[in-house]
């Protein structure tokens, strides 16, 4: 079932839904002309369709393996990765100073989306490099930038993130890995890290690990963590690779999905590393990496949803049954396909709006755009991956019995996408971030966004009242929930409904972007899809908000003994 | 992570929620005294915990294989199956006339639930035998009953259902398999059937296939289908096995889950079979088998949910993080666990209410009970399996990164349960059945159930107003939806929202059963869980009903071209 990158969807979203032009009219992105964007999207789409997508199934059926301490990746991965790298696609948003294209993050998000649809396991490799590039750009020394950035941006070297330890999952502050000064400016890094995606591989010549570890005498918790850059092979100043570092892959995990992505248990045994950023500022640097990666993971969810949707649609169009031309004429099959498409649009718009906000923040330096990006990041991550899971699940269902057979390929999307709701901070962690940290401004960023929605809905009332009115009303309901939230000082009361709150916020945001699409094409296909979404899916927000506003009392009244009863 | 059968939950549900006593007070079930029920549940629970559950992981890691035309099942399956059979657990509801225990279907449903939690792949084998026993009890000749029922009930032989052909999935009427009279009362059955669960194996000595096929000159469509009993080895009148029949396993499917259940492509090449029921009445007979199996599959979903819940709870109770005693103290983890438990209760109550309605129909012969059972069957199947999927998915999420690692065992629940939403009629087919066939009475059966709920809610208002009021209101909203539905003569308008309608119906039913539980224990653990469900999960019904009542126009306005755009 060939995958076709939805290039024109991205163009439409940029032009009519998320206003990318605001960013590309700034000096910073002056090179990103409409022609350039068109060319970038088209070329990326071609690469994904023709080079990357054909490797997807092999990643599943021939997982990466560890042989004599060396990781061998799935058939075709090395060649496809090299074409990604040679085309300059690893980090198109990276700074031109070190070889990047300096394109808007919104465009990079679109490319990540397409690459993920084509092969999630493989795309994870450049996504991690992107995060590492961001971290080094923001926190690395000039020498580190000069040495590492060109190699990472070109894809000759790849990056990893090393946070998790066996005893410390989401609670990163419990990490025990150690770093001791060697006296020559380098450090000896020791410890075990788990869930290291692309911890080792054969698709590029070097692997650069960013490792959180504790210096001697460092305090407990996250404040005692520093960040170290630990390369697999130690480069000289020119980037020529020297000795192998003292680190190894202990084992690869056998996972539910993304079999093509080698997930390593890494062991560092006085491995040579260099401090990135200040001592004790490791979490801060890591957050730079993670925030970007969170938007990237949201785009992974959307990409997988797109792949699963196309796969299911092609099957349904081809499948005859009874008197119908195809099963697409069955109401329930059409409902599933329309829901899938409508949700993909909503989730994709949120990721691109988040990317655009990042671009606006970079281009204008305005704090409001920073706040907008910060607000949208957890929503983009959690809703993008939630949509990825739902759509992949519906994709299996559209296939009927065939969906459960591995050869069909539908199940792989569902197994692969499952991890996206877990890594880079579980979706529960995203929701906590949204209702706590992202509401520390008293809801200012949220209210600004809700004001924008209501303003657009007011405008749309004249021409599309049946769509504009429910969007406006849902936004008011959401506003009341935000007001409740910021007034609630008991954090557990916020947390107890945080996931439903995030999902309600995403539902409403999705209706806003659908409304904008309908305004751009009031008689077209996009207005019909918007009508479906607003009539059938948006009403979900009310139940979610009721849940979100329930507080914590009834929840904590259910004791652990009750749960075990 | 050991599984413990929730025996006391079943006792509570029978006694306080679904009124099984009404059935056991009838003459038909007079033997099912409270002591007998207690003993049955306890013994079944022990078997599941000690014998069956330990084989679950091996089914996943060592799938059934086809070797030289013979299926070899997973390690430990044969021994566990034999203990199931020897204990008389294959078909406890089967008629005592042929060796069954004649127990209520509600009890059989509880046992199916526990067996599924312990090992879904293995449980599927006796579940199929149960369906075959029902079909032969209802439609077989006296000779067929005398020959086959004792062997199937004892588990010495097992049963399969052969409906699906490669070109005919849910559209069974397109089946092409043929049967020609041999002149001696037997028939030569030829054709290929796919997705035949337990189509061959080594856990019992014979496999009896019920095969839908067409007699010469039979009309097109479902009316031309007759049902044939085609044994793997042809028995003589005493049940002694003779020659191998002319049938074979072409291949086994590689599936997303239930690896321990051999899913065969079967080839019949003039295999000897015997007509069950009248010529052309194959679908009718098959529906007897399927209706029972549908309730059974609903119980599978609930069982898997229970297994996944226990697995996640044990992990969460044990997992320390940060300053908390365990991650159960994190609000979002507790929310997930409470949702899982509350949904399991709701779905389980629906399956047991359905079983009880079947028992009442059998015991009293009253048509109202038949109608109640018919109404509840698609809800029990679709909601039971939906809850199975959601809970297994949350179970993975509670585990965090560990959930995605196969060794943990959480992912197996999710992969295994996925098929239950597809087989025995996809959940979309169940929803169509609910809004069409099950509403052909003008909504009478539905209204009778809603009347019952409102009556109980009225009674509860005095003591539990905060629970009774929303249940009553939700029931009214559902009543309006049923009224809308039965007045809607355009079937596509019903079908377009049929799945959301079914889920809304289940949500409301779940709140009813939770309310009854709270009434029985107003200060206890069950009331706290009911409060959680009614406050947080029940509000979902409103959005679902809005979706259900949207009609078909906006849906079919989205053309196949729009979907492909």
From TrEMBL, chains A, B:
Residues 161-269 form the Acyl-CoA oxidase/dehydrogenase middle domain. Residues 280-437 form the Acyl-CoA dehydrogenase/oxidase C-terminal domain. Its cofactor is FAD. It catalyses: 3-(methylsulfanyl)propanoyl-CoA + oxidized [electron-transfer flavoprotein] + H(+) = 3-(methylsulfanyl)acryloyl-CoA + reduced [electron-transfer flavoprotein]. Pfam families: Acyl-CoA_dh_1 (PF00441), Acyl-CoA_dh_C (PF12806), Acyl-CoA_dh_M (PF02770), Acyl-CoA_dh_N (PF02771). GO terms for molecular function: flavin adenine dinucleotide binding; oxidoreductase activity, acting on the CH-CH group of donors. Its EC number is 1.3.99.41. Residues 41-156 form the Acyl-CoA dehydrogenase/oxidase N-terminal domain. Residues 450-558 form the Acetyl-CoA dehydrogenase-like C-terminal domain. Keywords: FAD, Flavoprotein, Oxidoreductase. InterPro entries: Acyl-CoA_dh-like_C_dom (IPR025878), Acyl-CoA_Oxase/DH_mid-dom (IPR006091), Acyl-CoA_Oxase/DH_mid-dom_sf (IPR046373), AcylCo_DH-like_C (IPR036250), AcylCo_DH/oxidase_C (IPR009075), AcylCoA_DH/ox_N (IPR013786), AcylCoA_DH/ox_N_sf (IPR037069), AcylCoA_DH/oxidase_NM_dom_sf (IPR009100). Signal peptide: none annotated. The keyword Heme does not apply. The keyword Lyase does not apply. Involved in the assimilation of dimethylsulphoniopropionate (DMSP), an important compound in the fixation of carbon in marine phytoplankton, by mediating the conversion of 3-(methylthio)propanoyl-CoA (MMPA-CoA) to 3-(methylthio)acryloyl-CoA (MTA-CoA). Belongs to the acyl-CoA dehydrogenase family. This is 3-methylmercaptopropionyl-CoA dehydrogenase. It comes from Roseivivax lentus.
